[in-house]
Automatic annotation (TrEMBL):
One MF term in the entry's GO annotations: hydrolase activity
Residue ranges of domain SGNH hydrolase-type esterase in the record: 23-196
Alphabetized Pfam families for the sequence: Lipase_GDSL_2
SUPFAM superfamilies in alphabetical order: SGNH hydrolase
Phylogenetic placement of the source organism: Bacteria, Bacillati, Actinomycetota, Actinomycetes, Pseudonocardiales
Name of this protein: SGNH/GDSL hydrolase family protein
CDD domains, per the entry: SGNH_hydrolase_like_1
Amino acid sequence: MTVQSLLPARPPVTRPIRTLATLGDSTAVGLGDPLPGGGWRGFPVLLRDATGAELVNPARTGARMADVRHTQLPAVLPARPDVALICAGMNDTLRSDFDAAGVRADLAATLDALRGVGCHPVVLRYHDHTRVFRLPGRLREALRNRVTALNAAIDEAVRSGGGDAGILDLHRLPGGYERAAWSVDRLHPSELGHRLLARAAGELLTGAGFAVPAPVDVRCAGGREITAAHRAAWIVVKGTPWLVRRGRDLGPVILHGLLAGGRAG
C-alpha cells in the first residue's frame, strides 16, 4: 500500500454559477407559478436560489426561437453568463408558418454565441403536450408531429455545435405528465411543475460539474394558492380569448390535419 493511497480522496472540483441566464417564452417568464403579491416566480427564480447565482432573464410571453436569437440573446451576452437555459419552440409549433429548419438555424446561432462567451448552454427538449392538453384525434396527431419536428431541430442544432450543450428532456422528467404538474390552462407548469423542472435542471448542471449548493425542494411553498374560483376565472378571462386569438393561426393546422390525416410538418 502506497502513502498516496492512504490520503483521503479529494472532493470533485465544481464550478460555481455566478451568473445564470434564462431565455425563452412564457414558461421561462414563470407563468403557472404565481406569487401572492402578484407576478411570477417559476423555474428561473427557483434555480437562481438553488445556485446562488445572479439571474438574467429577458424571456417574454409568446416568444419564438427567432425572438430568442435576435432580441433576448443580445440582452444576455454582455453579462457573460456561466450557464444559460433556453426554453423556446413551442410557440413556433402553434403558428401556421412553423418552420423547423428556421428553428434549428436560430437555435444553432444562439448556442454558438453563448459558447463564444464561455457559457454552458442547456436546451429544453419537449414532451408530448397532447398528453396534457387534450385535443381531437386528427389535430392531436398534427401537433404531435410538429413537436417531433421541433425536437429533431433541437437535436440537430446541438449536434452541429459539437454536442456539448446540455439537453433537459421534458418527456423523461419524473412526474412531468402528472396532472398536478400543470397549471389550470394545461399549457404552463404549475408551481410543482416549475419545481420539478428546476430540480431536474439543477441535477443536470451538477452532472456537468457545476455547483448547486441548495437543490430545489419539490414541496410547494411560497406561491399563491390556486382555487376553483381562480380556475373558473381563467376560463372566462384568459382561456376563451386565447383560443379566439389563436384561431387564425391554428386554423390552417387544423385544416391540414383533417385533410392530410394529421401529417403536419
